[in-house]
Request: fold
Amino acid sequence: MRLPFADASLQCVVAGEVLEHLTDLPAACAELARVLAPGGTLVVDTLADTLFCRITMVRLAERLPGGPPIGIHDPALFVHPRRLRDLLAAHGVGLTLVRGLRPSAREYVRWLAYRRRNGPAGAGTAGGPAGADTVTMMLPTRSTAAVYQAVGVKGTVSAART
Reply:
């Protein structure tokens, strides 16, 4: 994977719901760090490599109405927060915040009601929930056992750290 940006050219890189789909996580982390400028911020959110996540995201979430398509998640690609921290630290990006995320039950119910009234064809139209195709509202939680967000800054750890 090679991003179409010059080395150290971006002040902020966001990888949302991406890492858990990549087969070469070390190369992806190296590439994210390569394009990030010194002092630049990296924001990622991904699925955790835990039993809880495998049960909730693969067995349950993929079977909920409007959930992700069955089979979209390969638990072998889920990323434990410590592994992500170590991979990024090897490229000079230190994680300064790791927090769990969870879907908002209120937004999910609101989205289901909207879909029931308007059907899939109404998704994303004016007046509907933002991103009406999916449940987009995520709330912070202390547990990083399912979905988590990490924020890091390039240059906050030595590139030699393992």
The beta strands are 10-16, 36-47, 93-103, 138-141, 147-154.
